[in-house]
Amino acid sequence: MDLKLGRMTLKEWVAVESDSIQPVPRLRQELFRMMALAADKLRHLGASVDSVDGGSQQLPNGQTLPIPPIILAELGNDPKKPTVCFYGHLDVQPARREDGWLTDPYTLTEVDGKLYGRGATDNKGPVLAWINAVSAFRAMEEDLPVNIKFIIEGMEEAGSVALEELVRREKDRFFSSVDYVVISDNLWISRRKPALTYGTRGNSYFTVEVKCRDQDFHSGTFGGILNEPMADLIALLGSLVDSSGHILIPGIYDHLAPLTEEEKKMYEAIDLDLEEYRNSSQVKKFLFDTKEEILMHLWRYPSLSIHGIEGAFEEPGAKTVIPGRVIGKFSIRLVPHMNMSVVETQVKQHLEYIFSKRNSSNQMVVSMALGLHPWIANVKDNQYLAAKRAIKTVFGTEPDMIRDGSTIPIANLFQDVIQKSVMMLPLGAVDDGEHAQNEKINRWNYIEGSKLFAAFFLEMAKLH
Amino acid sequence: MDLKLGRMTLKEWVAVESDSIQPVPRLRQELFRMMALAADKLRHLGASVDSVDGGSQQLPNGQTLPIPPIILAELGNDPKKPTVCFYGHLDVQPARREDGWLTDPYTLTEVDGKLYGRGATDNKGPVLAWINAVSAFRAMEEDLPVNIKFIIEGMEEAGSVALEELVRREKDRFFSSVDYVVISDNLWISRRKPALTYGTRGNSYFTVEVKCRDQDFHSGTFGGILNEPMADLIALLGSLVDSSGHILIPGIYDHLAPLTEEEKKMYEAIDLDLEEYRNSSQVKKFLFDTKEEILMHLWRYPSLSIHGIEGAFEEPGAKTVIPGRVIGKFSIRLVPHMNMSVVETQVKQHLEYIFSKRNSSNQMVVSMALGLHPWIANVKDNQYLAAKRAIKTVFGTEPDMIRDGSTIPIANLFQDVIQKSVMMLPLGAVDDGEHAQNEKINRWNYIEGSKLFAAFFLEMAKLH
């Protein structure tokens, strides 16, 4: 495996300021250049490459910017082999030296075995690791054990504009032969121990508006004779969750997947230094004291967070206002097998009940502003078994079997549209700092990760 | 009484854009011109006039602007007569034609007996009405029945910068001979019936901060394992007041002045069309159904309003944030004889108790950010009796005896520093629109108001 070459390419790719967040024509050009470099690279690998026009993006200010093409590529179509589709992205978060970077963010720099640079771990490094794995077979003139497809986009950090439409359009064409989808766009939860991600929580985001009138009131002139919307809203928000984090909405826990002995063991096996986690989180005390409880409450139990209030006084200082119309915002992280529309009904009924008890003359409107299903994979699927064996071969250990407490829309998208097994197989360590200053990928992770992908191809072929 | 001349002067004064809010050198010059015009006017009246340098104002941007002088003037010093000091201000709120004015805000324009113009009722008209009253005696070459003092400022709308310092400094000099202070800077609560204002509520403004850490959290990554500061804060704010407006802080009602039969009758006598009040307030339903209950809850009972939360998500949209540190803001309108430091202790003890019950690992800090005492006058004081008689003479009716639910810092200031009887004797009607577009004073109010002040001088002399 020509890893020196692989590192040179990573350096070349990191040097492209493929920032999709800042809507600047110069950066958009860099994104196009990035996608062209990747298409070239894949063609050199022998893949047939289709750069699909992404159309254009309408900005809030009315300006229009072109969306970089999404690459669909394929290598091999032997009907006897399984077809694995790899998703990755080559756009990055903004980075400037003066934000606190110790090295230039767009010059890949090795210090103590760490390769620093924007996009090194999110997600240019993992994309190249996959390409390295394919190259290895090519270089040894060996047949690829699996058929490979690539879907590589350049707008992930900006919300994967245009991706969903493409995936739906290509469902019965490009994706029709796909058996497995692999995403490598998250991190381990440890510095040294590999992980496999098999689920994410969903989210249902609610707004509750309480209105007396559109204008605000002065608290001297009206304080004492009004059903103040803030008092109503505070009572509504205060009815949602108790101080132990338990959600108080009746029925909300009814459809939770039962905790099996097998699942319990997965939490026990996970490598998590609670003390370090607490320190790095800068949290004095969590609601729970054990690793297992903490992980379960992040991954397999729902949680309710109150985000804020729109329309009230939020600035520094002391303003004596009675807000006339306020909107509270909260969301519930959903887990298997909660049903989003059941949750919506439960929340609405609960808030209507609490509001009716107050006998307020204000108007209340509850809306579910956003709903994302939870995602859970079957860890007994072939690709999870293959990945576990490959990890054992390359790293000599069992992986941490992890979930993500957040929603990863791309996993949901592939799961929902293609309806094939989706696996998240991360390469980066927990301290890689994706989105932060001094993002890095360890040289060790990058090299062993490339080997891992190659070993995964072999194991997949064996299991198929 | 030369009222034609009085209207000419009002036109001239309204024409000066004496806006103290916008910190613009041109407008500051207009303010200086306004104060010079007033000083001239008072000198023509025969008063000895002292324009006291106001020093300068430091703006938040570091810029410095001069503060217009405060006028101290006096007319007569007969030790056998009472000395009445009149407070007024000649600065105005900003106004632009395009804000929705039907006439030019700086050109006094009469339409259907209404004199439209910025400052017409707040407070140039009433200041001139007082001057008109003095002029009337001068014009008839009659002796003034009382000694008159004036304190006229040009920064009231901007918070009376420099006033308090001057009043304290002049306590034993200019103010030493003052027996009564009259302020005419508020409105009747009816269109046709005069009023006397004898009290205002105070205010104690609280902040309660709940902190887990300085940075925010992502609700996917941390939701479920934290004592979320918003949940704590919502519970704290939710413990303050019930849905009927009753304050739940133990002891808060302990020191309220008892409601006497006499006071009760004052509310009953007040002219208030509830239906019109409700409509003009755009409020579907108040907490109380009778005029008396509504007025008492605005004037003689405390109220608690929750103003908002600093540090949470307050913008439109759906952000999945767990705020790391939030500051709730609420205030209690104080009434006689609540003691501010007792209230402070009650609030702190209550919140500490509620917080301790939650067993949260967050930190809570409660602060009283601002405290203003309530003001109440003795309505049996000579000047209240004199004003009632003068109203009866000029308007043929008893006045509404009213209070203000807001704090009027100037009344407090004179009460606290000079410790003489303070009376608020408004001239303007409830619909004058001070601070709003199309501010006006009715010609009738202006003329009868000038007569009222003259009659008041005579009644004062009789009672003394």
UniProtKB/TrEMBL annotation, chains A, B:
Residues with site note (Important for catalytic activity): H218
Cofactor section: Mn(2+)
Binding site for Mn(2+) 1: D122, E157, H435
Residue positions binding Mn(2+) 2: H89, D122, D185
Cofactor note: Binds 2 manganese ions per subunit.
GO biological processes: proteolysis
Keyword terms of this UniProt record: Carboxypeptidase, Hydrolase, Manganese, Metal-binding, Metalloprotease, Phosphoprotein, Protease
Protein name according to UniProt: Carnosine dipeptidase 1
Organism: Equus asinus
